[in-house]
Design goal:
The protein is α+β, with helices and mostly antiparallel strands. It folds into two domains: 137 residues, no CATH class; 67 residues, no CATH class. The longest helix has 18 residues. Helix content is 25%, strand content 28%. Bound molecules: zinc ion (ZN).
Length: 217
């Protein structure tokens, strides 16, 4: 569906831009930089909160022809183990490249292409979809809040996934327990101090990000 005004509501009270923000928030809580979610030994996917467990997401791009297209999708699986790959619902929002002055972001700035958020697609619009998305927003902003400083993160009981964000680095994610965060918080380190100290053992760069991850007992 086209939607030239992203601030117009498309789903209950949610606008296209709000739906886009929610998809991005949930995506952030998948520990991998590529969107592949680590699987635990019992076959479950690992998110920092069980309410995120049966969600999946992906992004795609199409550079053939004009306009170029970018989209991100969020979906809820019928089965958290994803054995059948069937969805309860799926929401996708998309951007198109534009030459106009009305755009939302520039890819590879400053010379890159401009993109405008202007379309969406909903597979199986159920009555509770807007409500579910709003609840996901609340959940993720709560997680944002409880992991905004190292002190709060240590107090939250969550562990962390350490991801090297260098584009071509294929270093596996490293998982640390809540204790590890508590020890470092006690040293008086800030979250950015801590990230600045982590050097990737594969590419040698200091470009690590910490993502909330369930603490393993
Ligand atoms: Zn690396």
């Amino acid at each position: 569906m086209r939607c030239e005004n992203p601030d117009e509501s498309i789903l209950g009270k949610l606008s296209l831009r709000e739906v886009k923000d929610i998809i991005e928030m949930v995506t952030k809580y998948s520990p991998s930089k590529t969107g592949n979610i680590p699987v635990t030994s019992n076959g479950y996917y690992c998110y920092p909160d069980p309410r995120l467990e049966d969600l999946g997401h992906r992004s795609s791009s199409d550079d053939e022809g004009w306009p170029r297209e970018r989209d991100i999708a969020l979906y809820r699986y019928k089965d958290a183990r994803r054995e059948y790959g069937e969805y309860v619902w799926q929401v996708k929002v998309g951007w198109e490249s534009t030459n106009g002055e009305d755009f939302d972001y520039i890819e590879n700035p400053p010379v890159g292409e401009k993109f405008k958020l202007n379309n969406y697609w909903i597979q199986r619009e159920i009555d509770t979809l807007a409500e579910e998305l709003t609840a996901l927003r609340d959940l993720c902003s709560g997680l944002d809040h409880s992991t905004s400083t190292l002190e709060e993160w240590a107090a939250s009981g969550l562990g962390a996934a350490i991801v090297c964000c260098e584009a071509w680095c294929s270093r596996d994610i490293v998982y640390v327990q809540n204790d590890w965060l508590i020890e470092r918080a006690k040293l008086g380190l800030s979250l950015s101090d801590l990230m600045g100290r982590i050097r990737c053992t594969k590419c040698g760069k200091r470009n690590a990000k910490l993502r909330p991850y369930p603490n393993r007992a």
